């Protein structure tokens, strides 16, 4: 918008109010004034005295000044920072100069001196344009380009196969992952219909473009290799207008592989993870403190540990804590319940087997749990349930630090820390000939006795409140207190099931409580009976009165055990599982005792 006004035009402008001009000149000036007022560019004209003679409407708008405030006044008074006086003095035109007005408007201006034919300076004028909007638009375009570049980079680097089509269903973008999955290159897809890559099924892109709704989990086969895939496609809508759709393609075979791998990982975690530490063992009684100190000492050595105690006292908790406090804590921790598996299955699980060792054996054989736990710890719970044959193999592991797979001849060296646990009297089993004495000496190198709950009465309430927090999380409740009468009741009970029974009693109480209750009262644990401990004491007293004192200690113990078994069988009407559970022994041990005392006939009657 640069240029010079002719001298005649300028004189017309300066004499616009001169009534001596003829009507024709006035008409021309009116036309020029109309043009100037309607142009989108701002225009300011000053004369040689620096007085503003023209100030059009666009100038008013851009400067936020009215014509009345400007025309007839000095430019320096109205706009102190104006450069027009300088241009008039120098006589040199300045083109497309950036300037910021007093109101903050950013403009580009061209300033031109007004000269007559003789070069005499008659004034100057400026033509300027508001570029604020243009700058904002340019920044927006720049940002859009940056976003586009960023999105393209994301798509190209993504490991997910991605394809994008326009509103007509023609390919406009794919990424390298798409090429790896389908086998199609950009040249084969870009500009081609969305059905190009489909070998079986309908185009989900076309379905989405038609319905304008996303589709998830569609199964297709794509590419020349008929790859089985799952497709998620969504429409691209901008300001209500459909611009295309974008699809993400997943390889089904890869998903299956990842799922299987995840399941294997979960199994390993469940098997190998040692979840507890000594901080999780609750108890301040002298008996429990001694057991914890012994366990910590055991953790600092590589010695084999034998955990002894009644069922439910927390032997597995101690095993976890010992492993986590040892130098092996970053290696595997494998748990094995020796009573839960048959003899043949337990042997193959512990020591593994070679290919062809038995019918159904996996090709290539299988590593056993001792091999899997190499460098870590293995917890053998209910070790007293091992058969004589498995006991011999375990003894070899402890003596030689090596194992032989089932059906194998090669010795495999291992470095495993064995933590065993039992709730049975191993010494009596040795006397009975059901447990190897040499294995006992190997296992019993670092024995730790975990006291029953009735022997550490001071810990009952500590445990109760600790278990209460866990049960609140499990059941989504907020039970904060146990009433005094309920506490007294818990303290008076014998707890034959130990900590496991305490947790069961509290859990049952919470289940039967109202959702608004926040305190366990005596009535909530009314299912609990205090009679068993009293009955037990009387029962033992009666038996002691009838015991023949002339018999040996072993014979007297056998007589008492036989009587307890007989009464339990009658009480549960011959139900083996319930009888064994009530006595706190494994079903396998129960069968052994039936045979020992010739009580199997009683079950058949």
From TrEMBL:
<dbReference type="InterPro" id="IPR058031">
    <property type="entry name" value="AAA_lid_NorR"/>
</dbReference>
<dbReference type="InterPro" id="IPR009057">
    <property type="entry name" value="Homeodomain-like_sf"/>
</dbReference>
<dbReference type="InterPro" id="IPR000014">
    <property type="entry name" value="PAS"/>
</dbReference>
<keyword id="KW-0067">ATP-binding</keyword>
<dbReference type="Pfam" id="PF00989">
    <property type="entry name" value="PAS"/>
</dbReference>
<keyword id="KW-0804">Transcription</keyword>
<dbReference type="InterPro" id="IPR013767">
    <property type="entry name" value="PAS_fold"/>
</dbReference>
<keyword id="KW-0547">Nucleotide-binding</keyword>
<feature type="domain" description="PAS">
    <location>
        <begin position="28"/>
        <end position="99"/>
    </location>
</feature>
<keyword id="KW-0805">Transcription regulation</keyword>
<feature type="domain" description="PAS">
    <location>
        <begin position="147"/>
        <end position="198"/>
    </location>
</feature>
<dbReference type="InterPro" id="IPR035965">
    <property type="entry name" value="PAS-like_dom_sf"/>
</dbReference>
<dbReference type="InterPro" id="IPR027417">
    <property type="entry name" value="P-loop_NTPase"/>
</dbReference>
<dbReference type="InterPro" id="IPR002197">
    <property type="entry name" value="HTH_Fis"/>
</dbReference>
<keyword id="KW-0238">DNA-binding</keyword>
<dbReference type="InterPro" id="IPR025662">
    <property type="entry name" value="Sigma_54_int_dom_ATP-bd_1"/>
</dbReference>
<dbReference type="Pfam" id="PF25601">
    <property type="entry name" value="AAA_lid_14"/>
</dbReference>
<protein>
    <submittedName>
        <fullName>Sigma-54-dependent transcriptional regulator</fullName>
    </submittedName>
</protein>
<dbReference type="Pfam" id="PF00158">
    <property type="entry name" value="Sigma54_activat"/>
</dbReference>
<dbReference type="InterPro" id="IPR002078">
    <property type="entry name" value="Sigma_54_int"/>
</dbReference>
<feature type="domain" description="Sigma-54 factor interaction">
    <location>
        <begin position="281"/>
        <end position="511"/>
    </location>
</feature>
<dbReference type="InterPro" id="IPR025943">
    <property type="entry name" value="Sigma_54_int_dom_ATP-bd_2"/>
</dbReference>
<dbReference type="Pfam" id="PF02954">
    <property type="entry name" value="HTH_8"/>
</dbReference>
<dbReference type="InterPro" id="IPR003593">
    <property type="entry name" value="AAA+_ATPase"/>
</dbReference>
<dbReference type="InterPro" id="IPR025944">
    <property type="entry name" value="Sigma_54_int_dom_CS"/>
</dbReference>
